[in-house]
Amino acid sequence: MTDNLSANRANFVTHLECAMTGERYEAGRLHGLSRVGRPLLVRYDLAALGASIDRDAIAARAPDLWRWRELLPVVNTANIVSLGEIETPLIAIPRSGGKGVLVKDEGRLPTGSFKARGLVMAVSMAKELGVTRIAMPTNGNAGAALAAYASRCGIETIVLCPEETPEINVREIAAQGARVWRVNGQIDECGAIVGKGAAEGRWFDFSTLKEPYRIEGKKTMGLELALQFGWDLPDAIFYPTGGGTGLIGMWKAFDELEKLGWIGSKRPRMYAVQAEGCAPMVRAFEQGLEHAERWENAATVAAGIRVPKAVGDFLILRAVRQSGGRALAVSDAEILRAVDDTARQDGLLMCPEGGATLAALRKARAEGLVAEGERVVLFNCATGLKYPMPMAGEPLDRTKEIDLSRL
Amino acid sequence: MTDNLSANRANFVTHLECAMTGERYEAGRLHGLSRVGRPLLVRYDLAALGASIDRDAIAARAPDLWRWRELLPVVNTANIVSLGEIETPLIAIPRSGGKGVLVKDEGRLPTGSFKARGLVMAVSMAKELGVTRIAMPTNGNAGAALAAYASRCGIETIVLCPEETPEINVREIAAQGARVWRVNGQIDECGAIVGKGAAEGRWFDFSTLKEPYRIEGKKTMGLELALQFGWDLPDAIFYPTGGGTGLIGMWKAFDELEKLGWIGSKRPRMYAVQAEGCAPMVRAFEQGLEHAERWENAATVAAGIRVPKAVGDFLILRAVRQSGGRALAVSDAEILRAVDDTARQDGLLMCPEGGATLAALRKARAEGLVAEGERVVLFNCATGLKYPMPMAGEPLDRTKEIDLSRL
């Protein structure tokens, strides 16, 4: 099989454009947000791309993220900073989720979360564009992925976490060579500090969607699903939504694949899943708004979706509405029950954000939004091992007579 | 690509045999150790296998453990209990390990460790052979893999851990539906309790090498390496050695591949890596013994290789000697330094047992055992996320003026 990390491939990026105004920005230069403060999207010459390679050639390559190289922005192969971005498996959960439900287990990626997809791309592009110092606000997993990839290529990193960030994430970030700080605030408040330093030229700002390439990395979730489902997308996708990069990325991937003629016009219904304690997208969806107001006093066990304000709010809401999906909120109790059910009944330990997608599926079924027999994908965005589990393990004294019948 | 989880495949198992005496045992029946108390090895009709399929056909299948089905014991596809056993990636660590060194990152497997390979096979076979209740002694990761696969197919499990077992492992085992106990003793002392219950007919004994199929699962590490290296094996393999199932399994795999004509007679030098605080194989290797005496007062940060006595000792020593390798012991300080270096310099967070392999490589290089430019594989047997990391994250007060130059 072809080695995607050493093969040179053609690059089809034509330019970047503002997701709000369509204003055009030059490729091959460092960009943050657009002039109106909105995310930039990378555009490709899809006609030339389609003439150069077909979907079967992609499918015949080694099964990692870099098999999609022609649909990705990195120009020079030597700039790829890889830690083994495997294609993540789809795992049935028949007992806890029912028939037809597959979990895409993103916890298998480097640093144990789907953040690796976005960060491997953003860091590789930072390397390509000569960035030497990066700062980022994070609820944990994005910071861990940034630290790993940046350390690997000698880029210095400063990571700011809300003080509620799980202990293991903060330690992991530091272990992988970043400098990390705990801030008495939410992720957008950490982001304000990062933004201030970036404006002063101290570092490059790697906040969600504030640089254009994380979305290109996250896009590969949609590309992989298309291939894994034999170029016939599933009926519904449940996606834990904080900053929403993955949902936006998948929607962009489907659009590009259709333009290439590799899939048809059929789209999955996209369900943006949030926690009841931080559900700005759900509120905006239900009120018919294009933008979401900040959610005050955000609180949920699912730290990864504790994002009070998302800069890509309009892109999330647009994709959900176009797809015929919904934004759904679930309680922490429902999240924890879902995690527990899937671990005990199907042997798959999900993260709380992954549990939220199963909880939302259960709600969607109860409301008649998802029919029996539909092909459903839930995103488990990180390994469950990063999250607290209940105490266990009663002591057993081997020096005394043990009643084996009670074991 | 072919779906390895639904396709029916031919089975080539002829029988099992005692690894010590060669005595023959019937396939398709439940077996523990041989009559002389030693492991049983599964034997295949390799001539018929080779006539039925070639290595290119295997390579063209989806890249998971089940692509090797003809070389595995499960007869009925419906008995496969899968959680997505992907092919694990090989990751370069140029800064901490040097050129030509690749880490096989087994932390990407279900439940975050290479134990999944052995347990997916053993549990699938237990299902095939009608087992309903399993008990196991474990230092953590094997118990977690057993719990996950057994819960997934409704088999009841009892897991006994030494009281020093990392907290996260004990909790993970319970979260995945097993009943788990903490025993005031070492793993072989837990094993004695499991053995007693098995003798009384209370459960089936899943101790390392005491049932014949874990080794067949672990064998896939060797099969994968052969394929990933283009059927030309690396020069040296460093393997963290507790019970040694993986080392024995890889050696068996290489033998089977050569008999099939899929690889030549060249073998990697096998380095069995242990901790200075528990190094029975190193002592036996250096003393030229065929069996290893129990290591008293075993103690090391690398819990997975804290195995004072291994039932497969003679198979480990035989493979290491035949390969021209060595058994090497490293200190806990060397282990922790290796973990830290690889995380900080190459962005890869290994487990202590994985760190031990890098520490041993450094020692082997210093002793002239490994030359510059040789192709070396280190086994990182589990995700580093399961292990304690140093405290990190200095507080930052966003309500006050922040001196950004100090970040």
Automatic annotation (TrEMBL), chains A, B:
<dbReference type="GO" id="GO:0003941">
    <property type="term" value="F:L-serine ammonia-lyase activity"/>
</dbReference>
<dbReference type="GO" id="GO:0004794">
    <property type="term" value="F:threonine deaminase activity"/>
</dbReference>
<keyword id="KW-0663">Pyridoxal phosphate</keyword>
<dbReference type="InterPro" id="IPR036052">
    <property type="entry name" value="TrpB-like_PALP_sf"/>
</dbReference>
<protein>
    <submittedName>
        <fullName>Threonine synthase</fullName>
    </submittedName>
</protein>
<dbReference type="GO" id="GO:0009097">
    <property type="term" value="P:isoleucine biosynthetic process"/>
</dbReference>
<feature type="domain" description="Tryptophan synthase beta chain-like PALP">
    <location>
        <begin position="81"/>
        <end position="381"/>
    </location>
</feature>
<dbReference type="GO" id="GO:0006565">
    <property type="term" value="P:L-serine catabolic process"/>
</dbReference>
<dbReference type="InterPro" id="IPR050147">
    <property type="entry name" value="Ser/Thr_Dehydratase"/>
</dbReference>
<dbReference type="InterPro" id="IPR000634">
    <property type="entry name" value="Ser/Thr_deHydtase_PyrdxlP-BS"/>
</dbReference>
<dbReference type="Pfam" id="PF00291">
    <property type="entry name" value="PALP"/>
</dbReference>
<keyword id="KW-0456">Lyase</keyword>
<dbReference type="GO" id="GO:0030170">
    <property type="term" value="F:pyridoxal phosphate binding"/>
</dbReference>
<dbReference type="GO" id="GO:0006567">
    <property type="term" value="P:L-threonine catabolic process"/>
</dbReference>
<dbReference type="InterPro" id="IPR001926">
    <property type="entry name" value="TrpB-like_PALP"/>
</dbReference>
